[in-house]
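Lecture 7 notes: from sequence to structure.

We start with a single chain of 209 residues. Read the sequence below before looking at the structure.
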Amino acid sequence: MSYTTEDAAWDEAYERMSDELYPGHKAQAIIDFTHERLRSYYVANPNLLVPAVFTFKEARELLSCEHPTAALVFSVSATELFLKGALLKPVIYGLVHSDSLAELVVSAALTQTGFRRYSQLLAKLFREITNTELESLTRGNSSKSLLAEAQELQETRNKIVHQGESVNIQKAELAIDVATGIFDKLLTPVLNELGFSVAKGGILVDDEI
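Now the structure, written as tokens:
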């Protein structure tokens, strides 16, 4: 796919969000403010993870029924929901102070494909909250980062949907492993640092209450 002026505009928008959320000064004040904004959103939306968890369970069920191509599609969708719905969306709401405007920005942002576009924002968020580099997160002995593998699988998913390609069971298992890694190694540490845990079905539990 070609790189369009719309792609460039969204890249710039995500970079501005990243710079606004994490300017290079007053680091501790920014971290504290970030925690407060994110926590308030999760407290108000305890069912935030439910769609992602449901989609992931569907992926595993499809794989167990030997439908690897469909399983990969659902696995990648779950990964997108973990990243976009559970991390990017709360960040955008924290940056945009008008609820009605935030909803418009979120709706537009979440329709954009590709993880690269908001990887810088996610990386800074993860670093500030967990003191860990996002690029260091890998799946087992894989030489690629989780986010890089997720990007590659997203491209495979797009070929399935738009070009009718199919995949084998091993590829579908990889997609499920990556979605699991995104949840276990990226999303869960952020939620834990903010004082939350995940109960059965994807309901957020505020451990600080």
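Helices lie at 5-21, 27-44, 50-64, 68-95, 99-109, 119-130, 146-163, 169-193. Keep this in mind for problem set 3.
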